[in-house]
Recover the amino acids of this structure.
């Protein structure tokens, strides 16, 4: 009998250092920096969104100009500059509109406007490091953080995929996660 091998979540990172405003550019964009990133933040009128709507553009690059893959850092930057309840999108454009000249990443949003697609409720979790679903630990633990039993989630996912039903005693949180990740009962084999 072979023993299951599990991936280990990456260790928690160094604490996040808030951005500090370091200048204003000729185009009106403000430059912000911390030990990891240089960020440009610009607001502008965007009539296509409606009268009085103000849009924003956040341009992010690492200090060393390396590639950015950390979604949490982009979220922290968006929260600090645009606000925690504002939404932004990273666009993967049509080739005709592609801008790809540097390891720089762009978020776009409009104050007071929600993106009309995406998730509708909050779900912040980490796993115990077992099972297929692995999430690195949070440095600053959110108050609503759920720590998930990875092996139990795998077990419930397998039953749900096979039968389209949850086993007795399945925790409501795990049911929501499984439904979201399995796409509902239509995923059963």
């Amino acid at each position: 009998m072979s023993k299951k091998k599990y991936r280990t979540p990456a260790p928690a990172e160094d604490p996040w250092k808030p951005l500090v405003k370091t200048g204003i550019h000729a185009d009106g964009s403000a430059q912000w920096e911390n030990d990891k990133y240089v960020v440009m933040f610009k607001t502008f009128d965007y009539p296509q969104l409606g009268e009085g709507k103000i849009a924003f553009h956040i341009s992010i690059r690492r200090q060393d100009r390396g590639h950015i893959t950390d979604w949490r850092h982009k979220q922290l930057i968006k929260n600090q500059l645009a606000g925690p309840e504002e939404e932004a999108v990273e666009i993967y454009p049509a080739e005709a509109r592609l801008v790809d000249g540097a390891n720089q990443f762009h978020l776009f949003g409009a104050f007071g406007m929600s993106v009309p697609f995406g998730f509708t409720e909050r779900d912040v979790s980490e796993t115990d490091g077992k099972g297929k679903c692995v999430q690195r630990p949070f440095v600053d633990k959110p108050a609503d953080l759920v720590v998930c039993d990875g092996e139990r989630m795998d077990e419930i996912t397998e039953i749900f995929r096979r039968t389209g039903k949850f086993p007795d005693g399945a925790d409501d949180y795990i049911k929501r996660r499984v439904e979201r990740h399995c796409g509902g009962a239509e995923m059963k084999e």
Summary: The two ends are 26 Å apart (CA to CA).
